Amino acid sequence: MSLMSSKKIIVWFRQDLRLTDNPALSLAVDNGTIIPVFILDDDAPENAALGGASQWWLHHSLLSLSKSLNTKLLIRRGEPLAILIEIAEAFSADSVIWNRLYEPWQRERDENIKTVLKNRGIAAKSLNGSLLWEPMSVLKKDETPYKVFTPYYRKGCLTRQAPRFPIARPKEIQIADGVNFSMDALTSLQLIPKTEWYKDIEAQWQPGEEGAANRLQRFISEAATSYQDARNMPAVKGTSLLSPHLHFGEVSPNQAWYAIQGAFENAFDNKDLDVYLSELGWREFSYYLLFHWPEIQHKNFNAKFDFFQWRSSPDDLKAWQFGNTGVPMIDAGMRELYQTGYMHNRVRMVVGSFLVKNLLIDWREGERWFWDTLLDADMASNSAGWQWVAGSGADAAPFFRIFNPILQGEKFDKEGEYVKKYCPELKRLPKQFIHKPWEAPPEILKACGVELGKNYPNPIVDLKLSRKRALDALAQLKVIS
Ligand SMILES: Cc1cc2nc3c(=O)[nH]c(=O)nc-3n(C[C@H](O)[C@H](O)[C@H](O)COP(=O)(O)OP(=O)(O)OC[C@H]3O[C@@H](n4cnc5c(N)ncnc54)[C@H](O)[C@@H]3O)c2cc1C
């Protein structure tokens, strides 16, 4: 049975919670009456089960999608194959269409669903709705995948056919009778936690397609042309803040890609814009790595690191998680994450380096914490980010490059505004001590109301000694492997 002859088509929404530039939705709308459905997959493996912050986001994103569909969206929970078959039977649908996902377990599941549906006479079709270039289409001349970002992006991607231009939002969507949104069904997914830790998050983010469009517009009018430098300053809103919207597919990378090129002439010749577009390229590269090396979420890309002697220290891990390490730049970052569900990219690199190198704690502990607390938690970007920080990844920062959180703070948070925002107990310290309060004379600490070890911790590690310990561990690794 061909999709084109179908009259009733199930559109299976997943990480593409938008109407504009949604290839699956547009194809379905052009060919018949649709039955839109979102299914919370109970069979997701443990390492892919949604973290708390992502669950909150998903709840609100589904509400927003349902509103855009005139409250005609089915919400289900359970095993997708069985649910799709049940819906196909209930609505006499003869095809199912979706946008592809690239996480290994989802690829496997979707392949199986396609086969079973086809065997039952239900047409199934998948399209690319979330990447500029799909991983299988970008290979080196010898047909093997790239491992280094710059040749992957500049030679592999930019010389290929330009990414799809965004598809307009469908003018009219015919939705089958009987499709209705049920608040009870959404509530039964239990995505909203019982304790209201998300109040600060709620004030700062607007999940859904409209929130994504606003963020993109703000970035273009206020920050795009100063991106190259401003993106490194955690106290400045110098980046697009699109990551959770991109993760849930409330905006496609194609929309961002062409919005930039539409708003400014010769974007690739402008350093700020070129760097921004290349960051979208890093997102593509992360998916590319996950596609070609599906184990990167839990296995060192560079197998040499399998021999690394990590420390186990639940106390240090907890101090890091909750921003109580006594190192202001680290604590500000970890508190930003915990309070807002977001952390600035530069600070992600600095706190990651501190965990893995100064504390010698396995990068997978950091990956898990980020997975649970980030609104933009994304298997591809998170795994690639952590392996990059740890030095165990493809095209990664070498292990011996250990970020010094004092110097990073003095360079990128010169006035200490970022630290003062998230560590208010330090806010009266003069800027020469804000990133290293332990060096402040006792009378200054006293005058500023800082009591180290009482209202702000003493550092849990000596930065110089722990740096040496990390380099020794690396040297040891070289001997073993
Ligand atoms: C240890 C670590 C973990 C990370 N975990 C995640 C994660 O779970 N989810 C996630 O989306 N990003 C992750 N990143 C990448 C990056 O920090 C965020 O994408 C970025 O901070 C999001 O802010 P923004 O949207 O304002 O980015 P912008 O600077 O405005 O960039 C635009 C978009 O490009 C993409 N992007 C930018 N930098 C990167 C990068 N280094 N790698 C991949 N994509 C990038 C994002 O989709 C982002 O929204 C991680 C980075 C590190 C170092």
From TrEMBL:
This is Deoxyribodipyrimidine photo-lyase. Its cofactor is FAD; (6R)-5,10-methylene-5,6,7,8-tetrahydrofolate. Involved in repair of UV radiation-induced DNA damage. Catalyzes the light-dependent monomerization (300-600 nm) of cyclobutyl pyrimidine dimers (in cis-syn configuration), which are formed between adjacent bases on the same DNA strand upon exposure to ultraviolet radiation. It catalyses: cyclobutadipyrimidine (in DNA) = 2 pyrimidine residues (in DNA). SUPFAM superfamilies: Cryptochrome/photolyase FAD-binding domain, Cryptochrome/photolyase, N-terminal domain. Binds 1 FAD per subunit. It comes from Brumicola pallidula DSM 14239 = ACAM 615. Residues 7-132 form the Photolyase/cryptochrome alpha/beta domain. The record marks 310, 363, 386 as: Electron transfer via tryptophanyl radical. FAD binds at residues 227, 239-243, 276, 376-378. InterPro entries: Crypto/Photolyase_FAD-like_sf (IPR036134), Crypto/Photolyase_N_sf (IPR036155), Cryptochr/Photolyase_FAD-bd (IPR005101), Cryptochrome/DNA_photolyase_1 (IPR002081), DNA_photolyase_1_CS_C (IPR018394), DNA_photolyase_N (IPR006050), Rossmann-like_a/b/a_fold (IPR014729). Belongs to the DNA photolyase family. GO terms for biological process: photoreactive repair; response to light stimulus.
